[in-house]
Amino acid sequence: MKNIIFMGTPDFAVPVLEKLIEDGYQIQLVVTQPDRPKGRKKVLTPPPVKVTAEKHGLPVFQPEKIKDNYEQIEQLQPDLIVTAAFGQILPKGLLDIPEYGCINVHASLLPLLRGGAPIHYSILQGHEKTGITVMYMAERLDAGDIISQAELDILDNDDVASLHEKLADVGAELLSQTLPRLFNDKISPIKQDDELATYAPNIKREEEEVDWQKAQQEVYNHIRGLHPWPVAFTKWQGKNMKIWKAEKNDQTTDQAPGVIIDIADNGLIVATGDKKSIKITELQPAGKKKMSGSDFLRGTVRNELIGAKLGE
Q1: Is the entire prediction scored with pTM above 0.70?
Q2: Which CATH class is domain 205-305?
Q3: C-alpha dihedral over 100, 184, 7, 146, to 10 degrees?
Q4: What are the binding residues for (6S)-5,6,7,8-tetrahydrofolate?
Q5: What is residue 230's three-state secondary structure?
Q6: Residues within the annotated binding site?
Q7: What is the band of 303 on the pLDDT scale with cuts at 50, 70, 90?
Q8: First-to-last CA distance in the chain?
Q9: Average pLDDT, stretch 166-190?
Q10: Residue 185, pLDDT score
Q11: Rounded distance, CA 67 to CA 88, Å?
C-alpha cells in the first residue's frame, strides 16, 4: 500500500482520515493545527483530527505554520499528501515532495465557492446543489486541477451542521473511489475555469447580522447558513440577540421588515422584506443562555412584543 501523509483539522476531515485507514493505506503522519483554547474557561483543546489520529496510534505533527516547518515531511518522502480542511496553504516546496502530488478534498463543486467557508455560502446563496471536489493542490487557493467530483442536493431544512456531516461522508467515499484510479494513472484532471470561479471567504462578524429587508427565503437561508456556527444575530432593545433557529411562516403582512407581527406558542413571528414572515424558534438574548422561543415568551409580556422591531 502507498504511504500517505494526511493533513486536516476539524470534524469535516475525520471521516476522510477514517476512510484512508479503513482502506489500508499506510498513514505515515497526521498533520493538524495546534491545540487551541476553547470555551469560556479557555481550556486547551485538541482538534478533532488529532483525537482521531491518537485513537489509531498515528504520529501527529502540529506546526503553527507549515510553510516554515516541513523538514519532517520531506524526510518521510510520502507517495501522496491528502488534505481536508487543514486550514493552512501549503508552500510550493511541500507540494513538490510526493511522487503523486498533493490532493485536497474540498466541500464545493469547484470552481464555485473557493475558500474557507464553502458549506456556509452554499446555503447563504440559496444553492440547490453542492458537492465535493477532489483536486490537485496549487499555490493559489483551491485553484488546482479537478480530479473527481460528486454532487449533493441541498434540502430546504439543511443547515451548516447537517450539510457538513453529509459532505464529510461524501468526501470520504469519493476519495476512496478516486485514489485507486490516481495510483493506477487512470485519471484525467480538468483545469478549472477561473472566469467561473466564485468565492467563500471566512464569515466576518458584520456579515452575521440579519437583514430583515431581504425576502423570506433569503432571511431563512441566512439563519440556517450560519447555524450552528457562527450564528446569525439581530438587534433587540439595542443589544445583539443571536437567532439559532427559525422557520418560514405562512403569515403575510404589510408591516415594516423586522417588526414582530405575531406570537406563536413556540416563537416570534417577524416580518420580512417581501411581506412574508419568519418564525424565530430558538434564540439567545444578550448575556443569557440559548433558549427556545417558548421559554423566551414565558419571561416576556406578549402584548408588549407585538409591534416591536428587531434590527435596531
Answers
A1: yes
A2: alpha beta
A3: 80
A4: 108-111
A5: coil
A6: 108-111
A7: confident
A8: 60
A9: 98
A10: 94
A11: 9
